[in-house]
């Protein structure tokens, strides 16, 4: 899977111990993006608790990294009890990195992860006036069912197959190699 990302940027799953970076990313969101991300205004304290909690839950969190900083995140977390197999997804991209394809790449990874985990329905809380998120969801209308008339959109992901699982494994191993090279380069520079 090859995503067109801004130069030097990469997408990978967050590792244990990276909740601080996630928290800092969420705190950097401008007021409008924060409101859209959380479906209303939330305090800095709420965000601090939220980031810690998310990393400790059974969530799949992909981050868009550039120069070691997280500038965008997509979360996928199970909803309710099995065998319902429903999940919730949420995306945030910092203002300076919006409209560069990052949201599309993060949503693509999240859909693949949802498919491979057997989630049949993905909920995305989207405020009715969030045009940008609606545009983004429309790009995936072959895979998503999104009800723009309501605050909560419901999307349907297709069943996993060996190719979809392999795509996730390949994306993870490529991202791991890139992260190791990036770390090595930054250690050598220091
Ligand atoms: C919604 C959000 C995730 C989109 O991320 P992004 O990185 O800007 O998205 P992309 O660059 O991949 O653009 C996706 C599509 O949005 C549309 N888009 C991009 N910039 C736009 C703009 N300035 N105005 C309206 N639509 C725009 C386009 O259709 C674009 O697809 P295209 O480039 O193929 O034409 C991002 O704006 C964001 O984090 N917003 C705040 C939080 C939020 O709303 N989260 C969603 C609720 S969970």
Which terms would index this structure?
single chain, 190 residues, alpha+beta, six-stranded mixed sheet, 6 helices, 6 strands, globular, binds coenzyme A
Describe the fold and architecture.
This protein is an alpha+beta fold and 190 residues long. The protein contains six helices and six strands; from the N terminus they run βαααβββαβαβα. It has a six-stranded mixed β-sheet with strand order 1-2-3-4-5-6, sandwiched between helices. Strand 3 and strand 4 form a beta hairpin. The protein is globular, with a radius of gyration of 16 Å. The two termini are 32 Å apart. 31% of the residues are buried.
Which range best describes the helical content: under 10%, 10-25%, 25-40%, 40-55%, 55-70% or over 70%?
Answer: 40-55%
Gyration radius over CA:
16 Å
Series of secondary-structure elements, N-terminal to C-terminal = EHHHEEEHEHEH
What's the main sheet like?
Answer: 6 strands, mixed
Major β-sheet strand ordering: 1-2-3-4-5-6
Give the amount of beta strand, in percent: 15-25%
- What shape does the CA trace take? globular
């Amino acid at each position: 899977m090859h995503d067109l990302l801004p130069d030097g940027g990469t997408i990978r799953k967050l590792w244990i111990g990276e909740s601080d970076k996630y928290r800092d990313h969420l705190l950097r969101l401008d007021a409008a993006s924060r409101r859209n991300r959380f479906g209303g205004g939330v305090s800095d304290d709420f965000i601090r608790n939220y980031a810690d909690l998310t990393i400790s839950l059974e969530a799949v969190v992909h981050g868009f990294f550039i120069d070691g900083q997280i500038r965008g995140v997509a979360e996928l977390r199970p909803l309710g009890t099995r065998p319902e197999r429903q999940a919730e997804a949420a995306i945030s991209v910092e203002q300076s990195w919006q409209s560069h394809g990052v949201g599309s790449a993060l949503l693509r990874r999240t859909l693949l992860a949802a498919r491979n985990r057997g989630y049949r329905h993905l909920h995305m809380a989207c405020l009715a006036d969030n045009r940008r998120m609606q545009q983004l969801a429309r790009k995936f209308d072959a895979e998503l069912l999104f009800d723009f008339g309501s605050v909560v959109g419901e999307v349907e992901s297709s069943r996993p197959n060996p190719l979809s699982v392999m795509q996730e494994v390949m994306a993870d191993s490529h991202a791991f190699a890139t992260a190791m090279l990036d770390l090595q380069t930054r250690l050598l520079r220091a």
